[in-house]
Amino acid sequence: MQETTNAQATQPVKDVYALVTERIVAQLEKGVVPWRQPWIDAGMPRNLVSGKAYRGLNLILLSMLGYEQNLFLTFKQVNDLGGKVRRDEQGHMVTFWKQPEKKEAGEELVEDAERRRSILRYYMVFNISQCELPEKYQLPEIEPVANLVCEAVYENMPNKPPIRFKEQQAYYNPLQDYINMPKQKSFESNDAYYATLFHELMHSTGHYSRCNRKDLIEMSEFGSDAYSNEELTAEIGACYLQQLAGIPSQFEQSAAYIQNWLLKLKFDKRLIFTAAGNAQKGVDYILGVQGDTDEPKTD
Inter-axis angle of helices 271-287 and 255-267, to 10 degrees? Predict the structure, then answer.
């Protein structure tokens, strides 16, 4: 027994970037775009005990599972409630950042102004449908997703860029800091108009006067890493805003579209982390809310 324990102790720590990217890639290979999975009917993914919503990449990871209710617990939380996880049920990954005393074998340190010397780790959670909880414990009703007024999203955005209607194409000009939109009547529906506007608003959050996102500044070359990062950031953020505004998903999910992201994600295991994190920051900025970077605790 002691030999087994020592052998396990020397195993390299799993590459969390690769593990998560594999899950995203697996969904794309099934023809499912994970960041376009709605949570309106099931509620925004949140921890049952703390009540805190999962954010950024964890929101994508948990909402794409397709549960009837997006309520999750850790194994310890289930036990503390006097319940148990049903036999043969598998947990689901939730990522978090840890500041270690020293780097362990196989782990990658990330150093930047926000994370300092941080390591990406993960723990497992279980959906309530995977658990047996005491009858005395009453599950909360699913909280309806806030139905934002689409026009108010732009009007209430702090330091918002002006919108111009001079050309029949939608784009954000980072040098002059304005959004150009085709006139609203030229769209097939109001939902289509606001879905496009949300995408351009997300680009605008990269401006130095807002979130100061370097990928926006460096995205001039089509197909570059910066371009891919920025486009995925804008798309994920726009999807968040559409879900919060109750806009139905009307996306093209062609084979070519899916194949493009498959190639990008397989080549860059950090892409989905960067994009999802930046998207959450951009959405927080647009909605004027203070971002809570902490995920629900594991204990």
Answer: 110
Tens of pLDDT along 75-116?
Answer: 999 999 999 999 999 999 999 988 766 555 555 555 554 545
Per the listing, tokens 């195993």 go with 11
Encoding tokens for residue 155? Answer: 């009007």
Pairing mode, strands 178-180 and 163-164: parallel
Tokens 């689409």, located at residue: 150
Of 299, 276, 298, nearest to 124 (Cα)?
A: 298
50 vs 67, 92, 292, CA distance in Å?
19, 18, 14
169-192 pLDDT, tens digit per residue, is 999 999 999 999 999 999 999 999
Percent of the chain surpassing pLDDT 90: 62
Q: 155 CB contacts (<8 Å, ≥6 apart)?
A: none
In this structure, are residues 16 and 121 in contact, taking their beta carbons and an 8 Å threshold?
A: yes
Mean of the per-residue pLDDT values of the chain: 85
CA atoms of 234 and 282, how far apart (whole Å): 9
Q: How far apart are CA 85 and CA 103, in angstroms?
A: 33
Element (H, E) at 5: helix 2-9
Contact 264, 228 (CB under 8 A): yes
For 254, the token pair is 């062609």
Percent of all residues in the chain with a pLDDT value above 70, rounded to a whole number: 81
The Cα 154–Cα 163 span in angstroms is 10
